[in-house]
Amino acid sequence: MVISADTSFLFSLYGTDVFTPEAEAKLRDLDAPITLSRFGEFELANALRLAEFRILRTPEDTAKSLASFGNDVSTGQIELPACNLADVVSTARRLSIDHTAIGGHRGFDILLVAFALEIGASKFLTFDKNQMALAVAEGLTVLE
Question: How high is the pLDDT of residue 37?
């Protein structure tokens, strides 16, 4: 089983927000690592830094969160496999054509779902209702 996640889930897991307890509980219940794209890794780090800019986190909080993420990568709880960027973008293009005009999906959200589809994920972790709708529309099971 391959499980992927979006930034709303990752931020809750490595940052602190109202969904943090739920994200931590879901992580404990998983029977496979979370598989992320480098897009997801980048977007998490950027979201943490943006929260710092907005004075919602300290630089020390961000450093601790990124170190925790790095530790989870090194222990295998998070996997960052290589993927074919052209294939991901091709799938993202199709998702945009099929869903954006009716669902209002953002580019990075589409890329994360496209990556999940390209790596054969069957499950997807998100707290973003719009991204949840996109993932479900594409046959992914959203872990709630």
Answer: 92
In 3D space, the residue among 88, 112, 110, 89 whose CA is nearest the CA of residue 101 turns out to be 110
Report the CATH number at residue 19: 3.40.50.1010
31-90 residue pLDDT tens: 999 999 999 999 999 999 999 999 999 999 999 999 999 999 999 999 999 999 999 999
Comparing CA positions, the residue from 71, 77, 81 lying closest to residue 40 is 81
Q: Is 3 strand, coil or helix? A: strand
Q: What's 18's DSSP letter?
A: T
DSSP 3-state assignment of 124? strand
Q: At what angle do helices 85-95 and 107-118 cross, to 10 degrees?
A: 120
Decide: 9 and 126 in contact? Cβ < 8 Å. yes
Q: Model's pTM, two decimal places?
A: 0.93
Domain membership of residue 32 as a residue range: 3-142
Number of Cβ atoms within 10 Å of the Cβ of 76? 8
Q: How many domains does the chain have?
A: 1
Question: What are residue 3's DSSP bridge partners?
Answer: 34, 123
